[in-house]
């Protein structure tokens, strides 16, 4: 009778934050969602709209609005705040504004007594995740971002079209920056447990036409394509957030490509990159280090250099 309600706070309830809340409600992932926004009226309207879902779902989720100083009892705080500038070509273009927006948020959240997990969706997610980790003082297991989880999903979806299989039968990861320097780890992509590279080699008539470089480009550019056509991406990333939150609250130990603070893994330290990690009730339980080919190691090094340069441009000294 004294069990604690599973509470998720979503800071920033624009397209991504509200879609995350909608996904959590439909999947009955948590007991309570508190919405926080710099425009309280928008948070209230989103909460009211979401509350009208309850008759049509199979479990009730309490929807409230609140402030940063009410995050103390939350299990997870989702950060999905930022501006939507026009005509951007790279997520790194919003770096300066992301720093200015996020820096004032972390202090009040931590002052509330929060000791849960920060899950970052704000772009550029790798740099923002590192920023939140530094500013919060929490262990790296309690601060990570959506990273390349959505990119990995995009890769599997593209391959499912070309191979005529369900995307859930494709296994593999996109590593590195959630941005232009990301790359699929082709040496570890499998379809039904069989390496994709072996499938292509053994069935050249059926699959020899696949251009892996083109698929990698499509994977990387699909988010920008959506942005240019409708102004924002939110369905995919909203569901990715719910997927990660479910793994945390249900202690599922799923392996998900998240933006993680590295401490020696893959040869990096004090740096956030999209890598597969075991996600459980404690947060990021363990980073999974894949055996990369020399070419893949070079790609990851280039991606790490891009992120490091961006981090170095920010005043993040303690």
TrEMBL record:
Domain Lactate/malate dehydrogenase N-terminal stretches: 7-145
Output the InterPro entries linked to this UniProt entry.
Answer: L-lactate/malate_DH, L-lactate_DH, L-lactate_DH_AS, Lactate/malate_DH_C, Lactate/malate_DH_N, Lactate_DH/Glyco_Ohase_4_C, NAD(P)-bd_dom_sf
Q: What is the lineage of its organism?
A: Bacteria, Bacillati, Bacillota, Bacilli, Bacillales
One GO term of the cellular component aspect? cytoplasm
Kindly list the biological process annotations in GO that this record carries: glycolytic process; lactate metabolic process
What is this protein's name?
L-lactate dehydrogenase
So what EC number does this one have? 1.1.1.27
Residues noted as binding substrate in the record, renumbered to the chain: 91, 123-126, 151-154, 233
Task: Sum up the protein's function in the record's words.
Answer: Catalyzes the conversion of lactate to pyruvate.
Q: Where is the active site?
A: 178
């Amino acid at each position: 009778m004294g069990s604690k309600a599973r509470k998720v706070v979503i800071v920033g309830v624009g397209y991504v934050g509200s879609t995350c809340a909608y996904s959590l409600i439909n999947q009955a992932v948590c007991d309570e969602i508190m919405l926080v926004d710099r425009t309280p009226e928008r948070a209230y309207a989103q909460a009211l709209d979401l509350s009208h879902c309850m008759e049509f779902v199979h479990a009730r989720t309490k929807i409230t609005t609140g402030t940063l100083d009410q995050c103390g009892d939350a299990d997870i705080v989702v950060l999905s705040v930022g501006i939507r500038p026009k005509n951007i070509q790279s997520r790194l273009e919003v770096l300066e504004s992301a720093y200015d927006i996020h820096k004032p948020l972390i202090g009040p959240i931590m002052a509330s007594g929060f000791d849960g997990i920060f899950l970052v969706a704000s772009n550029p997610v790798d740099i923002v995740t590192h920023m939140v980790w530094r500013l919060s003082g929490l262990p790296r297991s309690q601060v990570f971002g959506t990273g390349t989880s959505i990119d990995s999903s995009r890769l599997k979806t593209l391959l499912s079209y070309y191979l005529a299989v369900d995307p859930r039968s494709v296994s593999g990861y996109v590593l590195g920056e959630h941005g232009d320097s990301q790359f699929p780890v082709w040496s570890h992509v499998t379809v039904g447990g069989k390496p994709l590279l072996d499938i292509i080699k053994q069935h050249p008539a059926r699959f020899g036409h696949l251009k892996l470089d083109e698929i990698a480009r499509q994977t990387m550019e699909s988010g920008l394509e959506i942005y240019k056509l409708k102004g924002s991406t939110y369905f995919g990333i909203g569901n990715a957030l719910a997927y990660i939150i479910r793994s945390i609250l249900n202690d599922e130990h799923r392996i998900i490509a998240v933006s993680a603070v590295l401490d020696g893994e893959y040869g990096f330290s004090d740096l956030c990159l999209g890598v597969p990690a075991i996600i459980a009730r404690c947060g990021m339980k363990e980073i999974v280090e894949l055996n990369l080919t020399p070419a893949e190691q070079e790609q990851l090094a280039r991606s790490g250099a891009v992120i490091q340069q961006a981090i170095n441009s920010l005043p993040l000294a303690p």
